[in-house]
Amino acid sequence: MTLVDLKFAKRLKHDLTAIKPVKTHEQVANEIHMAPSALSNLKTGKRSATREVKRTLVESLGSLKLAMSAARSEFGVLSFLNDSKLQLESPYATSIIQHKEEQERIQAEHDFELAYTKKPSERNAEDQAHIENFIQQYLEEQGAERTDMIVKALSSGMSEEKLQSMIDHYNRVYGG
After folding, report:
1. 47: which residues sit within 8 A by CB, 6+ positions away?
2. Distance from the CA of 146 to the CA of which of 66, 105, 113, 139 falls in 20 to 30 A?
3. What's the DSSP call for residue 37?
């Protein structure tokens, strides 16, 4: 039995609401050969979606953020889309956040290097805290960079489909 992925359900609900003027939930359910009640159970988090159902939903809705949510849960891909400070739609704001996160990571890196170069048996609690802080800052910087790239691409007029195509190409070439 798979656990219910509430983040995926929340993203699915958002995307289904967003396409309502174009496509009804019933139409989406029919497209993916699913009962409307089953689709409703997925979007409310009452049921979990299999990997194949997630893939089919992503294709049907054409949602990059839904694809990233599915990748997070199915393949352990890092996801920063629910971080409220990263959900800004302004390319200027995301750029500022990205630079801030980069500076915080750079500041933490010096302490990390001093702690990391010690033999593990010689590290104290402060050294371990520096190591963990650096890793946390590094992850936050990666999330800010990814969000900044997505917001800039979409706000420049690039479609989600084109951006997804570029990401897919990168993954095929570099194994991402």
Report:
1. 4, 38, 41
2. 113
3. H
Please tell me the distance from the alpha carbon of residue 84 to that of residue 147, in angstroms, as a whole number: 11
Instruction: State the span(s) of the chain assigned CATH 1.10.260.40.
Output: 6-75
Q: pTM for the whole thing? A: 0.50
Q: Could you confirm whether domain 6-75 is CATH 3.40.50.1370?
A: no
Q: What percent of the chain has pLDDT over 70?
A: 88
The closest of 91, 28, 88 to 57, measured between CA atoms, is: 28
Tokens at 166, concatenated: 């570029």
pLDDT of amino acid 2: 47
Phi and psi torsions of 156, nearest 5°:
-85, 0
- CB 134 within 8 Å of CB 111: yes
Write down the pLDDT at residue 71.
76
Assign 75 a pLDDT band (cuts: 50, 70, 90): low
Alpha-carbon gap, residue 54 to 2, rounded angstroms: 13
